[in-house]
Amino acid sequence: MKLASYNNGRRDGQLMLVSKDLTKAVAVPAIAHTMQELLDAWQLLQPQLSELYDALNDGLIDNAIEFDEAKCLSPLPRAYQWADGSAYVNHVELVRKARGAQMPETFWTDPLVYQGGSDCFIAPKADIPLASEEWGIDFESEIAVITDDVPMGVSTENAEKHIKLLMLVNDVSLRNLIPGELAKGFGFYQAKPSSSFSPVAVTPDELGKRWEDSKVHLPLITHLNRELFGQPNAGVDMTFNFSQLVSHVAKTRPLGAGAIIGSGTISNYDRSAGSSCLAETRMLETIADGKPATSFMKFGDRVRIEMLDDNNETIFGSIDQQVVEYKG
């Protein structure tokens, strides 16, 4: 299935069932009003939605409307849990190498995760308001999963069955604020403002053979100011798959339905595929030339993130956002 949340003036939006080709949509209030309501009762409601989804794709829903990405909030406009990992350890290794920092061996055996703010996500077509270019504005193109209720201590083998939806992420990062925060030894906070997610969330079966071993085996495509910036394959060089990430996050606590777990910045050892964030490009330049040549984002810059299927059709719709000055 493919699902979205339309902006209806309420905090959690209106749950919409979206056709496979992203052309049609229908509200389903008789089943669930919001995405969170659906996730809270997924086992009960999913069969009803699946039947309706088939009818929508067959053109049998009389009250279906044209799907409009511009009306979408993030699939979960707010969430009880947003934990972002760093599953592509070669990306971490590169960033640390550029600043001369040693990387502990445990980075290859134990996932890195930070707790992100989840009370207010930015809509996929909305501006990104920030107060200063001096903060080092960066995008991070990622994939995330949404779970149902996950028991504490779930094994990696059992974690995948709790993954109900996938979506794309722009994990906005303020790179120049990160060093000062990490130096305090207590993690990110101000350096990680509100994130954004793709207009559409999809069930894993929508990816067919491209969803295997709890990984998405497709390129994640990023354009910066309408020029291709990177298209690394999300299924390549992923040190920890999503089942491992979910199991890791649930090691000492249960996860409530609607928990979002991110992959971290998609990154390949094959640098010809480009990057999924400016920081990685800058680090490669630093390693090669002693200093970065690429600047961080400025007000007016635009980032677009999407993923295409084998027929070159968009799967999740696109995150397409402009950075603007926030004046309070």
Structural class: alpha+beta
Low-confidence stretches: none
Order of helices and strands: EEEHHEEEHEEEEHEEHEEEEEEHEHEE
Task: Report the C-alpha radius of gyration, rounded.
Answer: 19 Å
- The end-to-end span amounts to 39 Å
Number of strands: 21
Strand content: 15-25%
Estimated helix fraction:
10-25%
Rounded mean pLDDT score:
95
Oligomer: single chain
Number of helices: 7
Inertia-based shape: globular
The major beta sheet can be summarized as:
6 strands, antiparallel
Describe the structure.
This protein is of the alpha+beta class and 328 residues long. It has helices at 35-40, 42-57, 89-98, 156-159, 178-183, 242-249, 278-289, and strands at residues 2-6, 14-18, 24-27, 65-66, 72-73, 82-85, 113-115, 128-130, 137-138, 141-147, 163-170, 173-174, 196-197, 201-202, 211-212, 215-216, 221-224, 227-230, 260-262, 302-306, 319-325. The strands form 5 sheets. Strands 1, 2, 3, 4, 5 and 14 form a 6-stranded antiparallel sheet that branches.
Provide a short characterization of the protein structure.
This protein is of the alpha+beta class. The chain has helices at 35-40, 42-57, 89-98, 156-159, 178-183, 242-249, 278-289; strands spanning 2-6, 14-18, 24-27, 65-66, 72-73, 82-85, 113-115, 128-130, 137-138, 141-147, 163-170, 173-174, 196-197, 201-202, 211-212, 215-216, 221-224, 227-230, 260-262, 302-306, 319-325.
Question: What labels would you give this structure?
Answer:
328 residues; single chain; alpha+beta; six-stranded antiparallel β-sheet
Task: Furnish the topology, listing elements before pairings.
Blueprint: E1 2-6, E2 14-18, E3 24-27, H1 35-40, H2 42-57, E4 65-66, E5 72-73, E6 82-85, H3 89-98, E7 113-115, E8 128-130, E9 137-138, E10 141-147, H4 156-159, E11 163-170, E12 173-174, H5 178-183, E13 196-197, E14 201-202, E15 211-212, E16 215-216, E17 221-224, E18 227-230, H6 242-249, E19 260-262, H7 278-289, E20 302-306, E21 319-325
Parallel strand pairs: 6-19, 8-21
Antiparallel strand pairs: 1-2, 1-5, 1-14, 2-3, 3-4, 6-7, 9-12, 10-11, 10-19, 11-13, 15-16, 17-18, 17-20, 20-21
